[in-house]
Specification:
With 191 residues, this protein is mainly alpha-helical. It contains 9 helices and no strands. Helices cover 68% and strands 0% of the residues. Helix 1 crosses helix 2 and helix 4 packs parallel to helix 8.
Length: 191
């Protein structure tokens, strides 16, 4: 995103905020749709609340402390948590659809983390990966989404999640190792 647009948003230019909204809303929607079991109406409510909070908190944004986009992601994440607290529901994530079709096996070709990363980056939405991801913990799903769908760095994810970049790096490695095992189990079940 262009720095000039961000500066215009920070100066509360409504036209710039509208452009900013259009550039980021689909990313927010995809995140909520793939991570939580929410209706479109609930997603739209969370997104609306998020953008209202972003707009009303622009004066309190600290350039020294935050990257603007990471700050917006943190607001989305906190707004989502608030949504679940208000509903007095516990966090829950969507069960990603599974396929009964026989798919080509990934795990036979996986040798190390770099191979897993390459596969995830090439086809994050693969049915086998969806099956395996549906078995991950909610935080693990969130980290994978931010890392591979949103291409966030460990540092950016750490600011959004609230863990150190080192912890995010270690967690990502462990998540990928767990995902490798889950991929094997998915294929063993399908066989």
């Amino acid at each position: 995103m262009e720095q000039a647009l961000i500066e215009a948003v920070l100066n509360k230019k409504k036209s710039a905020f509208s452009i900013f909204y259009n550039e980021i809303v689909d990313h927010f929607y995809s995140f909520l749709k793939s991570s939580y079991n929410l209706s479109n109406e609930e997603i739209n409510d969370i997104i609306s609340d998020t953008f209202i909070k972003i707009w009303t908190k622009l004066d309190s944004f600290n350039k020294e402390k935050w990257d603007f986009l990471n700050w917006c992601w943190m607001i989305l994440r906190n707004t989502t948590k608030d949504f679940f607290k208000k509903k007095e529901k516990s966090l829950y994530f969507s069960e990603l659809s599974t396929s009964t079709e026989e798919n080509n096996s990934f795990e036979d070709n996986i040798k190390d983390e770099e191979d897993i990363l390459e596969i995830l980056e090439q086809d994050f939405k693969s049915e086998q990966i969806k099956k395996a991801i549906s078995n991950l913990k909610p935080l693990d799903k969130e980290i994978l989404f931010l890392r591979f769908s949103e291409n966030k760095s460990f540092e950016e994810i750490s600011k959004i999640i609230g863990l150190t970049p080192w912890n995010i790096r270690v967690k990502t490695h462990r998540i990928l190792q767990n995902l490798k095992k889950l991929l094997k189990n998915c294929n063993n079940i399908d066989s």
